[in-house]
Amino acid sequence: GAVVSQHPSWVICKSGTSVKIECRSLDFQATTMFWYRQFPKQSLMLMATSNEGSKATYEQGVEKDKFLINHASLTLSTLTVTSAHPEDSSFYICSASRGQGAKWQPQHFGDGTRLSIL
Amino acid sequence: AQSVTQPDIHITVSEGASLELRCNYSYGATPYLFWYVQSPGQGLQLLLKYFSGDTLVQGIKGFEAEFKRSQSSFNLRKPSVHWSDAAEYFCAVGPGHNAGKSTFGDGTTLTVKP
């Protein structure tokens, strides 16, 4: 089946640093990738949608300058949390989908990245 | 606006017992409904989906769900639970053409007693 690899799985860093999270589709071309944030015992909140080769579309309330998303190829999207602070600590999950537009394509989720900012 | 309510935050069942997880949704058009499972520290795996047609849908791992339009519900069921089913379960609703725009419920944690 389709595999999405997310790296790193866990990162701890000091406040003020920037952290990059990678999301790779290993065996298919992901036209669309999604980034979610999940707080403990809560649901997934969609942060942004990225389509290969174009700018990401951010959900309302998500700071685009804070959470930089790049989808440079059909197999790789990155989320960079810039100048991270403790309130950015969370579980970040990416998903990838083959399609966009009218035809539904399933999302394939990565295993998530637990980000802890000290 | 679309929304999903999972009334049960935590459910405990004995291994071998039957399971039903509740999901109620609000959606302005014909809903596309999904159930996902999340093991600790991992991403989500799609269990099943409903787009149209037969209101009883079969999924992986022996799960099924029934769409009831009159009750705005999409409850997940399994006849006999296995210890490996212990996980977090999310119901989601959204437009079929854009999977990422799905709205997720807050999840139900399933504990399985030996």
Q: How would you describe this structure to a colleague?
A:
The complex is a heterodimer of chains A (118) and B (114). Chain A is mainly beta and 118 residues long. Chain A has strands spanning 4-7, 10-13, 19-25, 32-38, 44-51, 57-58, 67-73, 76-81, 90-97, 107-109, 113-117. Chain A starts with a strand and ends with a strand. Chain B has 114 residues and is an all-beta fold. In chain B, a hairpin with a 5-residue loop joins strand 5 (32-38) and strand 6 (44-50).
Outline of chain A, from the CA principal axes?
Answer: globular
- Terminal residue distance of chain B: 41 Å
Largest sheet of chain A: 7 strands, mixed
The general outline of chain B is globular
Salient structural properties:
heterodimer, A: 118 residues, mainly beta, seven-stranded mixed β-sheet, four-stranded antiparallel β-sheet, 52% strand, B: 114 residues, six-stranded mixed β-sheet, 12 strands, 0% helix, globular
Summarize the structure.
The complex is a heterodimer of chains A (118) and B (114). Chain A is an all-beta fold.
Topology (elements, then pairings):
The complex is a heterodimer of chains A (118) and B (114).
Chain A: E1 4-7, E2 10-13, E3 19-25, E4 32-38, E5 44-51, E6 57-58, E7 67-73, E8 76-81, E9 90-97, E10 107-109, E11 113-117
Parallel strand pairs in A: 2-11
Antiparallel strand pairs in A: 1-3, 3-8, 4-5, 4-9, 5-6, 7-8, 9-10, 9-11
Chain B: E1 3-5, E2 10-14, E3 19-21, E4 24-26, E5 32-38, E6 44-50, E7 56-58, E8 64-68, E9 73-78, E10 87-94, E11 103-104, E12 108-113
Parallel strand pairs in B: 2-12
Antiparallel strand pairs in B: 1-4, 3-9, 5-6, 5-10, 7-8, 8-9, 10-11, 10-12
